[in-house]
Amino acid sequence: MNERIRLLAEQAGFVLWQDESWNPGDVIDWSCRYDDEFKKFAELIVRETLNEMGKFGDDQSNNPTWYKSMEAVEKHFGVER
Questions:
Q1: Which residue has the higher pLDDT, 10 or 53?
Q2: ∠ CA 17-18-19 to the nearest 5 degrees?
Q3: pLDDT value, residue 11
Q4: Which of 26, 32, 45, 60 could cysteine-pair with 66, CB 3.0–4.6 Å?
Q5: Residue among 18, 14, 78 nearest 41 (CA)
Q6: Predicted TM-score of the model (pTM)
Q7: How far apart are CA 72 and CA 64, in angstroms?
Q8: pLDDT tens digit string along 29-66?
Q9: What is the 3-state secondary structure (H, E, C) of the chain?
Q10: How much is the pLDDT for 57?
């Protein structure tokens, strides 16, 4: 699993396996319900994506489509930066 994705999963509240010898091979312990954590995880991914897109905003200062695209993603997912 990508390290950044693993960190976002941990931040969202997923229980992660460490280096236990009896680890089943997955990073996330899927033995419990993660309804709230999954929502938080998705929100974190969208927010981080928007933040990465925002880093290019200065280069796009004369491109209204750029900002409309970011606003459309925020609105679609109900997430603000």
A1: 10
A2: 125
A3: 94
A4: 60
A5: 14
A6: 0.74
A7: 12
A8: 878 889 999 999 999 999 998 888 887 766 666 777 87
A9: CCHHHHHHHHHHCCCECCCCCCCCCCCECCCCCCHHHHHHHHHHHHHHHHHHHHCCCHHHCCCHHHHHHHHHHHHHHCCCC
A10: 66
Whose CA is closest to 12, among 47, 59, 51? 47
14: left (phi over 0), alpha (psi -120 to 50) or beta: beta
Cα separation, 79 vs 47, whole angstroms:
7
Those residues whose C-beta lies under 8 Å from the C-beta of residue 32, and which sit 6 or more positions away, are 15
Q: What percent of the chain has pLDDT over 90?
A: 30
